[in-house]
Design goal:
The complex is a heterodimer.
Chain A: H1 7-36, H2 46-83, H3 89-95, H4 106-115, H5 120-125, H6 135-160, H7 163-171, H8 176-205, H9 208-213, H10 220-229, H11 234-259, H12 281-309, E1 311-313, E2 317-320, H13 323-326, H14 334-364, H15 369-377, H16 384-394, H17 420-442, H18 448-455, H19 460-489, H20 505-514, H21 518-543, H22 545-561
Antiparallel strand pairs in A: 1-2
Helix pairs in contact in A: 1-11, 1-16, 1-17, 2-6, 2-8, 2-12, 4-12, 4-21, 6-8, 7-8, 8-11, 10-11, 11-16, 12-21, 14-17, 14-19, 14-20, 17-19, 18-19, 19-21, 20-21
Chain B: E1 3-12, E2 15-25, E3 30-34, H1 41-49, E4 56-61, E5 64-65, H2 71-74, E6 76-79, H3 91-100, H4 106-119, H5 135-147, E7 153-157, H6 165-182, E8 185-190, H7 193-199, E9 202-207, E10 210-215, H8 217-222, H9 227-232, E11 238-240, H10 249-254, E12 265-267, E13 274-277, E14 288-298, E15 301-308, E16 311-318, E17 331-335, E18 342-343
Parallel strand pairs in B: 3-8, 3-9, 6-7, 7-8
Antiparallel strand pairs in B: 1-2, 1-4, 4-5, 9-10, 11-12, 12-18, 13-17, 14-15, 14-17, 15-16
Chain lengths: 562, 344
């Protein structure tokens, strides 16, 4: 569908496109060039090369195990909570939403508190002082965290499946197991595979968990951090980065161009209250058991975070104390303000441009639309820390990076080391959230409504502001809330770019966790997620102001009418 | 197989979707469940198939109480409104599904698929994907998939409502032909009264979870037992007796054939009313006059709306080029046979 494109639209599209090329494409390409153009790096020693492949093996082993476990658990959870009737289902359904207010590093902190050198289980119960850090810890923590992601994605797929297909199979005599294997699962296969790929990407990108509880077991992503901050070897980092990029790009490519094309779902099926009543009892019991066990672990994490924050010194002195919160007073309030500023500003810009870009690409199909879409979604495939390294190698040079080629003697206007770069990278990273929200919304908006407005005599400006903008509002709000909560806890992309004056709260937690002060870390993490929740609520009220006022007024109105 | 529905009821959180339904369906019969959306017809169909559990009552197939049986055991194949074909399988895989889950040998499945595809006139479409089929072909494939399991009972849930008018007519004839040649007892849910009359041996008219009339199509159409059925079957001249002045010539003529005692309404089909010019009609006290209020062309029929005092009446006359039409406001004489009146 081709529509007349107003010229301001074209101008803004041009600016957004430049931004995409400059702040997404260029940094990613730079990593590759920077990596292969250097021959004097440590990487090319046999040992460097070997190390990288050990890390790749670690990354892949963890990612594959985590992907399988988290996807299977997510499937079990989704089926249990959406397709079975049992007592206490409501409680479980509410609990499974907990990761939405996930304090950062909650899994790692809890793991240290339980299994660390002075952990509750390893030291207090078993009397060990060994360090059980390593692969098992990373897998445990990632599975706990990523199962929630898998559950959410698969739930939306389950809710969209056409129930009459399963009923058809049943009326033909297929048993419940047969129905599941021959109809339900094959129908959901694209979505399940898509979920697995996203879990895989998330696991590959996670650099903080291996750093905190991996011990000597480091992955590619965590090793990147060590190479930059410890060895200052940016070239080796860029080379390892390329190795990390390959599997990630492959997963991303499979997801974007293969799976999303073969979806079987129709829009008009409503299947909210489906219950399998003929499921074998032991199977049902097992599924409920597994779900409950997972949620108990999830809940346990939070419990230990709270306990840790309120204990004098975990591992040594288990008396109640508010010391961890008191130590937060005064000097350490600045990172929280920085976090809030960063999350708000980037959510605003990223969501605004993302949703607008979706509108332009979907309804106006401008030139290079496919390229723009690809660039904007690329950050979803690039692990945050690697994206940060891309910025590091690109924007070290004057005039936003291009100065490298002819202004080498001039050290001024270097983007790196300013506050702006952190904002820019977050906008670049979060824009695809807005883009996807916009696409999802525009699925239900017919291109002709714009034409209808023109046909009724409205000008281009009026059409955009009074017809299209109100339509896109809800996508913007959804994207803003999502970007904001992500922005409050984002670390990978910005950790290498941040300067002391705009230190953020997550970074604070990260530093504290690494130095093994789990009580302090727990206190800050709790505070941060509490703060995120409050501001999310605040923004939610702001966006739905009219609704909220209406609802508040409603009871009074009724009285007047009566 | 005969079906006995005994006092079946279904409640949803205090809302009664079905109120103690009793029906008996003979072996080899096709019953149409007819009613507006939300009347409970699909709920009843699903209870018979075992996809839904009734709140109360019993379902019997022949001499067996199957109320507690699960769907899989009942051998009731269902044809769904949205076809419910498996999108990840080809036509052959869809149709052969019911046999494959019984672990029949591949060659047998293949042979039976070919046979049943021929029956529904889809021969040679075995390898086609579901997405490449037209609406009518999807419907045939869905029917083939239901037939291949040799079900004891065939259930149709508004199977033709997604097709256009012409295709609907030819498909319903085909469904009827196949149902009669196989002799499978069938239940057919629809909201289209013409479809129900065309296809069914018996019609059960439903509204608000109750069966209002259960009879042969002719009886349901010509002798409705209640206002809802009369209206739903498409009748227009449904007159409440209380609205008619009992001293009038019109009333006397209406009730000349049958005693109105104990009846509340009467039905006067518009095609039974004969119109003549007021001038040529014999002008005695028994002649009825009415004024033309409007007229409407429905294909080859002209439908006049007449005012007879305060009563609105519709009269149909066949359109012919040689016939002159009555103009608005013109007075006409009306006549009808008292035998054409149905009192209820």
């Amino acid at each position: 569908m081709h529509l007349r494109t107003p010229s301001p639209h074209k101008l803004i599209y041009g600016i957004i496109f430049l931004f995409l090329v400059y702040f997404i494409l260029l940094p990613v390409v730079s990593i590759v060039f920077y990596g292969i153009s250097s021959s004097d790096s440590l990487f090319f020693t046999t040992k460097g090369f070997q190390n990288s492949f050990i890390h790749l093996r670690h990354s892949l082993s963890v990612a594959i195990i985590v992907t399988i476990m988290a996807t299977v658990l997510g499937l079990i959870l989704a089926f249990t909570l959406h397709r079975m009737a049992f007592a206490g289902k409501r409680v479980l359904k509410a609990l499974v939403l907990l990761p939405f207010i996930n304090p950062p590093f909650v899994g790692s902190i809890a793991y240290i508190m339980l299994f660390g050198k002075r952990g509750l289980i390893t030291h207090q119960l078993l009397g060990l002082t060994i360090s059980p850090f390593g692969m098992r810890g990373i897998v445990t923590v990632q599975v706990l965290g990523l199962t929630a992601l898998a559950y959410l994605l698969i739930s939306s797929a389950i809710q969209k499946t056409d129930i009459s297909l399963e009923e058809a199979a049943r009326t033909m005599g297929a048993s419940e197991g047969k129905v599941l294997l021959t109809v339900t699962l094959p129908m959901m296969a694209p979505e399940i595979a898509g979920t697995a790929l996203l879990v895989f990407l998330a696991s590959m990108s996670d650099f903080s968990t291996p750093l905190i509880i991996g011990g000597s077991y480091q992955t590619l992503a965590s090793n990147l951090y060590i190479q930059i901050t410890g060895l200052y070897d940016m070239q080796s980092a860029a080379l390892s980065g390329i190795i990390l990029l390959l599997p990630c790009f492959m997963a991303f490519w499979l997801h974007k161009y293969h799976l999303s094309k073969r979806s079987y779902f129709s829009d008009d099926t409503t299947a909210s209250a489906i219950v399998n009543r003929t499921l074998p009892r032991h199977l049902k019991g097992m599924m409920i058991g597994i779900s409950t066990l997972y949620l108990t672990f999830l809940l346990g994490q939070y419990l230990f975070i709270v306990l840790g924050a309120l204990t004098k010194q975990w591992g040594y002195d288990y008396t109640f104390s508010l010391a961890h919160f008191q130590s937060l007073k005064g000097t350490q309030i600045k990172p929280f303000i920085n976090s809030f500023k960063l999350a708000s500003a980037t959510a605003l810009f990223a969501s605004g441009t993302g949703v607008f870009l979706a509108y332009l690409l979907k309804l106006h199909r401008p030139k290079f639309a496919t390229a723009a879409d690809l660039f904007a979604t690329l950050p979803a495939a690039v692990p945050g820390i690697l994206f940060g390294i891309g910025y590091l190698v690109t924007f070290r040079y004057p005039i936003l990076g291009i100065g490298k080629f002819w202004l080498t003697p001039l050290p001024s206007i270097v983007l790196l080391g300013t506050k702006a770069i952190v904002y820019l990278i977050c906008i670049a990273r979060f824009m695809n959230i807005g883009l996807r929200a916009g696409y999802a919304l525009l699925e239900h908006v017919h291109p002709d409504i714009e034409n209808a407005s023109y046909n009724l005599g409205a000008g281009q400006a009026r059409t955009f502001f009074s017809i299209m903008l109100p339509q896109m509002k809800s996508a913007f709000f959804a994207s803003f809330l999502r970007s904001f909560s992500d922005g409050m806890v984002t670390l990978g992309a910005i950790i290498l770019l941040i300067i002391p004056s705009n230190k953020v709260a997550v970074q604070q937690i990260f530093t504290v966790v690494k130095s093994n002060a789990s009580g302090d870390a727990a206190a800050i993490a709790l505070l941060l997620s509490f703060m995120t929740l409050i501001f999310l609520g605040f923004y939610y009220l702001l966006f739905n102001f009219r609704d909220v006022i209406k609802r508040l007024k409603a009871p009074f109105k009724k009285e007047v009418n009566a | 197989m005969s079906i006995e529905i005994k006092a079946i009821s279904k409640d949803y959180n205090g809302f009664s979707a079905l109120k103690a339904i009793d029906l008996h369906i003979q072996k080899g019969e096709l019953l149409a469940l007819l009613g507006p959306s939300g009347c409970g017809k699909t709920t009843l169909l699903r209870i018979i198939s075992g996809l839904l559990e009734p709140t109360g009552g019993e379902i019997w197939f022949d001499d067996i109480n199957v109320t507690k049986w699960e769907t899989q055991k009942r051998q009731t194949a269902m044809v769904f409104q949205n076809y419910a074909l498996f999108p990840h399988m080809s036509v052959e895989e869809n149709v052969g599904y019911g046999l494959k889950i019984k672990h029949l040998p591949k060659a047998t499945i293949r042979k039976q698929v070919d046979e049943v595809l021929e029956m529904v006139e889809l021969s040679g479409m075995n390898e086609r994907s579901i997405q490449s089929l037209s609406g009518g072909q999807k419907q045939r494939a869905a029917l083939a998939r239901a037939l291949i399991t040799k079900p004891k009972i065939l259930l149709f849930d508004e199977p033709l409502s997604n097709l256009d008018e012409k295709l609907r007519v030819s498909m319903r004839q085909e469904i009827r032909r196949i149902q009669q040649s196989t002799g499978i007892t069938a239940i057919y849910v629809t909201h289209d009264q013409r479809e129900a009359m065309a296809i069914a041996d018996k019609i059960a008219v439903m509204n608000y979870g109750e069966v209002l009339q259960y009879d042969r199509p002719e009886a349901v159409y010509h002798a409705p037992s209640n206002v809802f059925t009369a209206d739903f079957m498409g009748h227009v001249n449904i007159l409440p007796l209380s609205d008619l002045p009992s001293e009038s010539a019109f009333y006397r003529k209406l009730t000349a054939g049958d005693s109105p005692r104990g009846k509340s309404h009467l039905l006067l089909p518009p095609n039974e009313i004969l119109l003549t010019d007021a001038d040529t009609a014999a002008n005695d006290t028994n002649t009825l006059f009415a004024a033309v209020a409007s007229r409407e062309l429905i294909g080859n029929v002209i439908r006049y709306r007449l005012n007879l005092g305060s009563i609105n009446l519709y009269a149909d006359s066949l359109y012919r080029a040689s016939l002159s039409l009555y103009e608005l406001g013109q007075t006409v004489a009306i006549d009808f046979s008292p035998n054409a009146i149905h009192l209820f």
